[in-house]
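Per your request, structure below.
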């Protein structure tokens, strides 16, 4: 009888605990939904368009933010194109787009010439990548400089197969290239034989299909189709970029010509909300807020 009473009490306690956990989770999700709704309230009653171009690393974040905003308010149209940081600066400066994205801080000359206003919303690492079939997984800065200059042109010299190294780089308008050139190559030469690709996505695709390739890509674009290279003893990842241990890193900027229009400002402000910060983090970047 005593055991039965105790069993009943235990069963009741379990049910109370389950109910408590359920209510707690409901409150958490309710709070998140309120926070999400509040971040989108600012777009109620708005009409118009926002045109965006420039850095390709930014695109996944821009697309997801745009999708959420346009779903909440179909009267808003947001268009997104790439082209690289140089294109972003030129197009926003010439009034062709509302936001010009850059994977580097615009120069003082660019800021002055186009009256740019800068919005830094994330920190990103630029990782060296190879094909998953490549056995080389770690390189020093001097080795990377020699690889991209063409002085080392065979994987055998690095502990890999006796095969020619196929170099991949970005075009000169790319902010990813500029950061890589400055911080990984110490502004050294990139061999003319290097294959030039137009975006982070194109780089990842090229490396994934070439067993003897090496290139570089935004950390936010890394997936299982490529392998990252440990650089100077540090593996590129969110925590190593955030701590400053990984040195090939840069800021992600959205730039406007002078003060942004009200709708453009609301879009940029959304990136700094809790929901915007989640989107940034989910795509492999480090939110600045």
């Amino acid at each position: 009888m005593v055991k039965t009473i105790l069993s009943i009490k235990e069963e009741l306690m379990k049910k109370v605990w389950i109910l408590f956990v359920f209510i707690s989770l409901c409150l958490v999700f309710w709070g998140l939904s309120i926070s999400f709704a509040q971040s989108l309230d600012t777009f109620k009653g708005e009409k118009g368009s926002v045109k965006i171009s420039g850095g390709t690393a930014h695109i996944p974040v821009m697309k997801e933010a745009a999708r959420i905003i346009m779903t909440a308010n179909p009267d808003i149209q947001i268009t997104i194109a790439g082209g690289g940081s140089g294109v972003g600066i030129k197009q926003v400066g010439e009034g062709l787009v509302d936001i010009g994205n850059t994977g580097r801080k615009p120069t003082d000359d660019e800021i002055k010439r186009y009256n740019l206003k800068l919005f830094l919303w994330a920190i990103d690492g630029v990782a060296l990548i190879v094909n998953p079939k490549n056995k080389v997984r770690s390189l020093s800065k001097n080795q990377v400089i020699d690889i991209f200059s063409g002085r080392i042109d065979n994987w055998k010299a690095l502990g890999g197969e006796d095969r020619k190294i196929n170099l991949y780089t970005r075009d000169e308008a790319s902010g990813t290239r500029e950061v890589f050139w400055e911080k990984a190559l110490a502004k050294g030469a990139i061999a003319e034989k290097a294959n030039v690709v137009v975006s982070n996505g194109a780089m990842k695709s090229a490396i994934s299909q070439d067993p003897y390739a090496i290139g570089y890509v935004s950390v936010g674009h890394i997936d299982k189709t490529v392998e990252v290279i440990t650089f100077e003893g540090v593996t590129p990842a969110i925590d190593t970029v955030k701590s400053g241990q990984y040195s090939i890193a840069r800021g992600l900027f959205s730039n406007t010509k002078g003060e942004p229009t009200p709708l453009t400002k609301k879009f940029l402000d959304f990136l700094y909300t809790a929901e915007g910060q989640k989107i940034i983090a989910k795509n492999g970047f480090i939110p600045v807020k």
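The mean pLDDT is 90.

Regards,
D.
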